[in-house]
Amino acid sequence: MKLLIKTFLVILVLTGSAIHAQKFQGVATYKSHRKMDVKMGDQMNAEQQKMIQAQLQKQFQKEYTLTFNAYESIYKQEEKLDAPQPVSSGIQIKVVQGSDIMYKNIKEHRYSNKSEIYGKIFLVKDSLRTRKWEMVDETKNIGEYTCYKAVIKGEYTTKTINDKGEIEEVTKPRTTTVWYTPQIPISNGPADYFGLPGLILEVNDGQQTLICSKIVLNPKESIEINEPKKGKEVTQKEFDTIQQKKADEMMEQFRSSSRGRHNDGSRVMIQVGG
Fold it and tell me: For 163-169, which contacts have Cβ atoms below 8 Å and span 24 or more sequence positions?
C-alpha cells in the first residue's frame, strides 16, 4: 500500500512538472551590434571611410525577439522604418540583410527557418546543430540575472575583393562566447543557439554581439508560437548552396560595375545572411 502511495505521488509530481513546463513562456528582446572593419581601398580618404563605418554600424543595430515556451521558440527581427541613408561624395551604401523567422523545437531537435533571397521565399527545415560547449568558471550579471559563461571554437570563411579587383576567399578561426542564466531554465537562445542549462542572454562571435535588453516571463496574454509554413522547402545544405551562388553573382556584378569608378565615387556593399 505504501509503495502504491509513493508511486502515485511521484506520478503526480511529474505530471505537475509537465503541466508547469507547458505553461512556462516568455518574450526576450535582443539588440545587435556588429564590429565594422571594412577595407575600402586607397580610393577613399580617412573622412570618407569614417563616415561609411559609422553609417554601416548604425544600419546593423537591430532588435530581435525570442518568443518561447519550455520547448519551442520563434526568433525574428522587429520591423522598423529606417531613415534614408545620405549619399555623400558619390558614396552609396547598400546593406543586404536577411529577415528570417526561425522556429526551433528543442524537444524534437529540429527547426524551420523562413528566409527570403532576392524576392524568393525558402523554408529551411533541418535538424538542430549540436554544439560542443566548453563551460567556463566565470559569472556576470545581465540585468537581474546571474549568467554563466560558455564558449565554442570553430572557423568561418569570407570572400572579399582585393586591391587588384580579384575575389579572395579567406578562412579564419572564430571563438563564440555566450552567457546563459539557469534562473530561466530553458535550453534555448537567440538565432540557432541552444543546448545550455539556461536561457542564453548574450552571444559574441567576434563580429556580432547579441545582448538581451528585456525579458517578460509568463505575460498576462497567452503567447502563440506558430511554425512558419510558407516557402520552398529545402535542407540547410541546399539553402547554403543557393545562398552562396547568389552571393557570388552579386559580388561579381559589384566587382564588374565598380571598375573605373575610383575617380567619380565608390560604392560599398555588405552582405549578411539571416
Answer: 163/41, 163/42, 165/255, 165/258, 165/259, 167/251, 167/252, 167/255
How many domains, the chain?
1
pTM for the whole thing? 0.76
- 227: its cell numbers: 511554425
**210 found inside a domain:** yes
**pLDDT tens digits for range 135-173:** 999 999 999 999 999 999 998 877 776 666 677 788 889
Does 72 map to a domain? Answer: yes
Quickly list H helices, the chain.
2-23, 46-59, 236-258
CA-nearest of 110, 76, 124, 103 to 242 is 124
Residue 69 lies in a domain: yes
Q: How many helices and strands (H and E) does the chain possess?
A: 3, 14
Q: Which residue has the higher pLDDT, 256 or 237?
A: 237
For 132, the domain range is 23-272
Identify the pLDDT of residue 78. 84
Paired strand residues for 142: 145
Please return the burial class of 19, using the count of CB atoms within 10 Å of its CB with bins 0-12, 13-18 and 19+.
exposed
Residue 6 belongs to a domain: no
pLDDT range class, residue 117, cuts 50, 70, 90: confident
DSSP string, 24-38: -EEEEEEEEEE----
pLDDT in tens, 256-274: 765 545 444 445 544 444 4
Cell output for 89: 561624395
